[in-house]
Protein: Arginine transport ATP-binding protein ArtM
Organism: Accumulibacter regalis
Amino acid sequence: MIRFENVGKDFRKVRVLDGVELDIALGERIALIGSNGAGKTTLIRCLLGEYTHQGTVTIDGQQPRAERTQVLGRVGFVPQLPPPLKMPVGQLVSFAAAVCRSDSKRIFAVARRLGLDVAPILTRPFNRLSGGMKQKLLIAIALGRDAQVLVMDEPAANLDPEARHIFFSLLAERLENTTMIISSHRLDEVAPLVNRVVEMDTGRIVLDDRVAEDSKLSALFQVHLTLARADAAIAKTLGAWQFADRGAGVEWHGTVSGPDRLRFMGTVSRYVGLLSRIEMKEVDAAVVLQ
Ligand SMILES: Nc1ncnc2c1ncn2[C@@H]1O[C@H](COP(=O)(O)OP(=O)(O)OP(=O)(O)O)[C@@H](O)[C@H]1O
């Protein structure tokens, strides 16, 4: 589906991509990881046809640079930083729907599932939305269409736990017929979403590995924590994960998305001295949890 052949890129004589070779099949979900400046965004920009480069990039045989309109019609993109657009939200969605041969209603429906009601903000300039609202709208634009390729740069970074769970469920609905590339600095953020990990360092691919898929993207875990004593800092953290206090600040209940398990454990590990019990059980996501 996607092929990078000996792709190189220089910015003012500085080598930023160097002989990148990568073949990605339909249905593969790639975590593109690497430290700051490794070349991830540059590789994505080459895939989107935004840069000239050495070597060849093809999406299903088409070259993004030469056939940009056709290729972009098939690629959904969620950028790491929202573009500074002053365009009103309604106009932006109509424009995106027209370019992607989709329909505004479909984009609005995805936004609504993510918890963003677009109706009251149709006339508001995009750059006046909050970070989370912008992210939800950009995800809705990318997913509210029939894209065969989804390219996402840290897509869930600004989402609250509930919206993250819905986002993972939306991705789960697309697994069969979509190729995904998810870029991140942190493997723990994206590893549960993917079946292959590609790591870059100074413009080269230094690791290309398969990942075992033993948990569904849409999985949900019920979590019960018992603390040795109540503590304001952990209460605030658990509150941000939408956990409920079930007993004097020491008994906490909540749900965590399957792909967020590692992230959740990482967060609570900061308070390991306070944890006297932790129980995590997979539950049917369709069941309404208390
Ligand atoms: N437009 C540009 N002009 C000059 N240098 C650039 C440009 N874009 C990127 N670079 C340089 O290319 C290198 C790779 O940058 P890139 O943004 O691809 O890395 P990255 O892996 O996405 O990093 P991050 O995780 O920090 O976003 C960096 O050294 C960066 O300074």
